[in-house]
């Protein structure tokens, strides 16, 4: 079965997903694209071969599945249109500009029963899978602490070719929700439920409502604690990067990268390092390294649940909301 795929939004992330679909080898037809910026839609159509629609409804009506790749404030309305039409959807992260919007979106798709997936693609990252696996190994002892750093240049310049992330009405907030929603999701996925947070934020670029630095301290039900430092800078020649260091009672491990990269570790012995294809070879979970877009198309075709779903993504919004509330109150400890 060839799945007809439509695109709501024609920017950098829509282009990324179109390329990823091609790389997946799954049979898809790029049906239609709509973007309020007509020249952007025309450029996307010229590359992908899809037709240009005049409305989002037209894309939905002519597709088996749609990609919601707009600025964040538009996600909820577009997800409702697709859900009401019974059309499967892949929604970019974050789901909404705030927790209430994210909850409504989850309620919409669960009531409709449509296949849905969210763009928390790092749950399939080989390097993060290996780091998670190392922490779960009994030989690592009890996990003590995690130090997580995430940095990229402020994404209103360079290859992003858009400015909406500097508009609080469209983005909701800054680096924490727009970029580090990935990191919060990874921390919970790897290490279990977060139970409290204390956080601070900064606004060095002077953009109203858009924090460009966040530092959060999280405690987990297991007793583990973690710090997350997330930064938007202006080093345009520095690509997005994540570095994570983990200490267990008998483990030291370090990750550099996001999807590719390397993982090093030691358990009272020589340091071992894996990079490239050697990372995936160490990981037991078959989802490690899986093409997220190919997995979505198979779920649509087979009418099976996609992963991660919007319901899976909701917990990260709960934690991010608590993190913002803590920062707004001078680092107040928030428990949940």
The oligomeric status of these chains comes to single chain
Number of helices: 12
Structural class by sheet pairing and helices: alpha/beta
CA-based gyration radius: 20 Å
Q: Count the strands?
A: 15
Largest sheet: 9 strands, mixed
Strand order of the largest sheet: 14-13-12-11-7-10-9-8-15
Q: What share of residues is helical?
A: 25-40%
Which ranges are low-confidence, i.e. pLDDT below 50, for 5 or more consecutive residues? none
Pattern of helices and strands: EHEHEHEHEHEHEHHHEEEEEEEHHHE
| Amino- and carboxy-terminal Cα gap | 45 Å
Q: Overall 3D geometry?
A: globular
The percentage of residues in β strands lies in 25-35%
Mean pLDDT over all positions: 97
Structure description:
- The protein is an alpha/beta fold and about 325 residues long.
- It has twelve helices and 15 strands.
- The strands form two sheets. The protein has a nine-stranded mixed sheet with strand order 14-13-12-11-7-10-9-8-15. A six-stranded parallel sheet has the order 3-2-1-4-5-6, with helices on both faces.
- Helix 2 links the parallel strand 2 and strand 3.
- Helix 1 crosses helix 11, helix 4 packs parallel to helix 5 and helix 9 packs across helix 12.
- The longest helix has 19 residues.
- It is globular.
- The termini are far apart.
- The model has no long low-confidence stretch (mean pLDDT about 95).
